[in-house]
Amino acid sequence: MANSGSVAKSIFNAQEKTVSERDLDWAVVQRVQAGNVGAFDQLVQKYREHIFSVIYNMTSNREDASDLTQDTFIKAFQAIGRFKGKSSFFTWIYRIAINTTMTFLKKRNRRRFISYEKINEEVSSSEIYERLTAKNRSEKGALVSELQEKLNDALQKLSLKHRTVVILHEIEGLEHAEIAEITKTSVGTVRSRLHYAKQQLQSYLQEYIG
Amino acid sequence: MADINKAQEKEVTVEDLLRLKRAERPDEAFWGTFDRELHQRMLQSLVKKDPWYVQVLRGVSGRIAQTTAVGAAAAFLAAVMLRPAYVEWAQTGTGAAVAQQDSELGFDGSNGLNGSNGSNGSVSASMESMGDASRGRTERAQLALAAAQITAPVTEVAMADLEVVMTPDYQIEAISAGVDAAYTQDFTHDRLQVAAYDSAAYVADTASFAGSGLATGLVY
């Protein structure tokens, strides 16, 4: 009972935090709309890494991800005058990023150029890598780069819709409802896409799982 | 050793593997370049002109909007000014007579001047002669022409009647410059402004002010 109470409290805190974040962003947006163009930098600094991460994981190419992240912010900057605050800025900018990336990937079609980001060393010494190294009896450095390649390959095999949902939920840590708002679908659709995508990934990454 | 065995016992899930992707983040140097490029592109986007096709499209859509607006205004004015006259004309029964006559003759209404109450007799006479189904198409056409000729003088009488019945409830104001018409000119300028300026202190944005030391303007 105490556990459910603490869970409810944490959900409440999360909602409260989200509301205050939304208000803060809205205040900055209003300043930009009033002509303080420099205030837009605050929004860039706040969201650039999240946006980059989503786009990078969708494209598996750091140069494309950099360009598309810039495109996203430029589009947002050009359209910010029309932003009415009906949704949060966070949802809005994520939606621009995903639409921009999807358009790019559809145009790019079958051509695939891959260039990966370096993996943070702290993470490469994490518990999961320890377990994988022990399980596969392989050298850690080789395993890290091999797994990175396999993970990116597996993600690229997913359809754009399924990839988006997996990235937003499992990598970015967004809630189902937030993803539903960003992708303009229902929570049920998000859950079903997530379930299917995980099944697919499980089959692609079988050798590392279990 | 015990820790390694314990770690081995735990199963690795898809979620665990995907969480590793969070570690693929660019370094600070990347963000420095990113910010610089983004600022440049944002500034370019502020001063960048639209491509030629967007400009053309905007011009065309502006023209279409103007034309539509003018057309709609003209249609509205026509409806407001002509409809009362038409309603009154229709109420006299003339319109109904014309319609009946046209349908009897098999006309499509193109010779709309041939209708009046007084023409009914002659028209029905000709209609009776047209009633015979055995007549050929040419003969019927000749008869129709004859009927039209017969009704022509009667039409003049009917028009005279119409003048009595129809009283126009609108007026058209004609405005023409240079003629002693009965209208007042309400669009004259109130005053003529003459301003001198110091060319050293004044920064001219347009070519029209560039070479002159005197600026004039009509104030309405």
From TrEMBL, chain A:
Coiled coil: none
Domain RNA polymerase sigma-70 region: 43-111
InterPro entries: RNA_pol_sigma-70-like, RNA_pol_sigma-70_dom, RNA_pol_sigma70_r2, RNA_pol_sigma70_r4_t2, RNA_pol_sigma_r2, RNA_pol_sigma_r3/r4-like, WH-like_DNA-bd_sf
Keywords: Sigma factor, Transcription, Transcription regulation
Domain called RNA polymerase sigma factor 70 region 4 type: residue spans: 149-201
Alphabetical list of Pfam families matching this protein: Sigma70_r2 (PF04542), Sigma70_r4_2 (PF08281)
Family that this chain belongs to: Belongs to the sigma-70 factor family. ECF subfamily.
Protein name (record): Sigma-70 family RNA polymerase sigma factor
Native organism: Thalassobacterium maritimum
